[in-house]
Amino acid sequence: MFEGGSSLAGGLSKTVDASEGVVKLASELEIHNAAIDMLGTVTEVIKPITPILTVIISLIDEIKKIRDNAQYNKKICNSLFDRVINAEAAVKILEQRIKENDEKIHTLVYQKNVIKFQTSLDEIKKYIEEISQFRGIRKYIYANSVKDKFIELTEEFEKCMRDLNFTMLVDSEEQRRIDKKSLDENLYLMNMNMNQMKELFSNRFNIIYQEINNLNPESKDHKSHLKVYAPKIDSSKLRDPPSGPNQRRGKSKQIVKKIYKGGIEVARKPFVFPEKDENLQFVHRYLSILEKLHESPNILQFYGLLTEDNKSFTIFEWAEMGNLKKVYEEHDVPIPWDTKANIAFDICSGILFLNALNIYHHDIRCENIMMTRNREPKIMNFHFSRMHGDKTVNLGKSVVDMINWMAPEKMLEHAAGKQGKSIVVPYTQKQEIFGRIPYKEKSLNDILDHVMKGEREVLSSSPDSLLPGKNEIQEGLNEIIRMAWSHDEDERINIDEMYLKLSKLSKRVELGQSPTLHPISEYSPRTYERILTVEEGIELHHTNDPQKRKLAWECFVTYTFLGSSLATYWKGFYLWEGYYNDKPISEEQKADDKAKAKELFKMAADKGNTDAQFYYAISLPKSKDSKPDLTKYLKMAADNGNVAAQYNLACLYLKSKTSSNQDKEIGLGYLNLAIQNNNEKALELKKSLNLDIETSNDE
Q: Which residues does the UniProt record annotate as the domain Protein kinase (predicted)?
């Protein structure tokens, strides 16, 4: 069932980088505190803790970036970031002590404490990464588990700081008060939102997430080898609508209404490919990402590319009422407040879906919201969209068009003459509730002056606000607008809180629909002993030198004791493959080693190590009782990008006699991911089952 030859790990050489092998555990070896001083050391002309500090500095920088991009639980992230600031201060003190040649900090005992400090920060980074984005939050089924993990991390961080003699940087009572307040506020929102948001995402969400990250050049998961082509539309499946071929719109009337597949109303729009060949693949990736967003009913659906008479056209879902700007400018009767509540909720739902996929639109304004005949808003125009982690988009002249929707701090950048230097336009969905273009009658300079003084538009009432229940909806929407308009960026309403408030308001609508969604400094010439970093241990492993692998093994054993989940996985892997020992091992010893490895795999898996998740899954017995855990850990690994897990999970779903049609659809999704990642066995399975699955081959 599992990919591989005689060994369960046999087939992973192409798919699990860190899973080729590591050193093996002597059966009698047990780790005690006294033994640690004898492990993981190497003599070098080097300041021992400097490489560790380099890793810590990098960790701190990564945590800063993650915190700055947080979409959820910002207050919890900020409370932990207070510790990171203390960690940064501690590193500066340690760097000064190195310059002063303080002998104490080069002892093995102190090194171990620095390593524990590094491990603590690494766990904080993982936690912030998880709870700050929707995809990561979903692993915390209960809000209390978020709180328990927070307490565990802060207590471990404080202990590390004390062990390093940084008691002056340990948390104060004031910090604990802030922690409690942050936890209480964010966990309340999280409890409420998790129940609401689960309807936003289908069972295929994790597959879609990985497919999109495979296409994103700035993603760490980006697959540069993939040759991607936007889906094609057969012209024979398009016909004119009953009203005739002249139903057109757009400035030059080039957007034409068509009927697709017998009944789907679509818009055919001219599309010009870039002249430079190097940009073609970028365009195809962009269009392919658009096509994968159809899982949300709040995104204007892209069907594919049409080639007709040597011309190219994009085929999008037809929006009968045009864009939202047109709707509220061309209708004599103002949009009722209950309809505004539904429209705002749908837009917010679409933004949440995009954000969960690490896609940020940055130009959500009325002209980029299309309206169907049922007044359902659809987000479109992703020309300025970027993926989370991408370089900032240079908006150029379009900044002038967006100034009405800019936040004060971004207006300040513009006023300082930065319009051509990577301005980021913030989320602007909040103003769409208002029902008109903000500051429409003001000039650019007047808008800048008005907003920078802290002034905003006047929130007026409308005739329908006097109707029963309507005033409550209006006041609720006005409250959201005021919170979104706060001059202080940190005081503005978060997207998750906005979603919750809009959800409640939209449910007050009596007749409306409640939408469901789917670097190393100079060293002293003195000789010191130092403990290798885990990364250095992995490098030693890849040399395939038995003696160097012994050093790697000692490194993994040491770091496992010090709490590193990465080292825990590697220690388990060395036990599993027998790399820790170059002498023959009895069958009894092999069985004992694998039992210990299994325990280590589970420990690392539960801490989020992807390779450990896969190895724990394949270490389970092939029985009916173990199938739930097998599926659980395979899915965890597959959703975190382990290609072997993707293939094996696909096999599990597609070959099982008890799989439902939904299971098989999910299995096809994972098989497609494995094929995109050049897994040969997945391609063979596809051929054997005669499946129509998207591949990375050129057309």
A: 194-517
User: Taking each helix axis from N to C terminus, what angle separates 74-99 and 50-68, rounded to the nearest 10 degrees?
Assistant: 160
pLDDT digits (tens, 9 = 90+) for 471-516: 788 888 888 888 877 766 777 788 888 888 898 888 765 443 433 3
Cα–Cα distances in angstroms (integers) from residue 651 to residues 1, 469, 575, in the given order: 7, 54, 27
β-strands 232-233, 302-308: how paired?
parallel
CATH architecture of 231-317: 2-Layer Sandwich (3.30)
Whether this prediction's pTM lies above 0.85 is answered by no
**Beta carbons of 509 and 524 less than 8 angstroms apart:** no
**How far apart are the C-alpha atoms of 569 and 368, rounded to whole Å?**
47
Task: With residue 360 as reference, give the H or E element that holds it.
Answer: strand 359-360
Whole-angstrom distance, CA of residue 207 vs CA of residue 551? 39
Give the list of residues 6+ apart from residue 32 with CB closer than 8 angstroms, or none.
none
In words, the CATH class of domain 336-506 is: mainly alpha
| Distance separating alpha carbons of residues 636 and 601, to the nearest angstrom | 13
- Helix, strand or coil for residue 667? helix
CB 592 within 8 A of CB 567: no
Task: Determine contact, residues 76/183, Cβ cutoff 8 Å.
Answer: yes
Q: What is the 3-state secondary structure (H, E, C) of 512-577?
A: CCCCCCCCCCCCCCCCEEEECCHHHHHHHHCCCCHHHHHHHHHHHHHHHHCCCHHHHHHHHHHHHH
Pairing of strands 311-317, 302-308: antiparallel
Percent helix, strand, coil in the chain, to 5, is 55, 10, 35
Domain spans of the chain, in order of start: 10-28+532-640, 43-200, 231-317, 336-506
Q: Give the model confidence (pLDDT) of 387-402 as tens digits.
A: 544 444 444 445 445 5
Residue type, 1: M
